[in-house]
Amino acid sequence: MMKRLDLTAVSRCLLAAALATALATTATPAFAATRAEQAAMVRERALATSSACALLSDLTTTVGQRLAGTEAEARGRDWAVKAMKAAGLVNIKVEPFPIPVWQRGAESAEIIGTGQKLAIAALGSSGATPAAGITAPVVYFADYAALEAAAPGSLAGRIAFIDHHMMRAQDGSSYGTNGAVRRAGPALAQAKGAVAVLIRSLGTDYHRNPHTGSTSTPAGVTPIASAALALPDAELLARRLAAGPVSVKLVSTPVFDANGQSANVSGEIPGVGAPAEVIVIGGHIDSWDIGQGVIDDGAGMAITLAAAKVIKDAGLQPRRTIRVVFFGSEEIGIYGGRAYGAAHASENIVLAAESDFGADRVYRVSSKVAETGKPLIAEINAALAPLGVAPTRDNGAGGGADVAPLGALGSGILELEQDGSRYFDLHHTPDDTLDKVDRAQLDQNVAAWATAVWLAASDDRPLRTK
Question: Is the same domain home to 306 and 197?
Answer without folding.
Answer: no
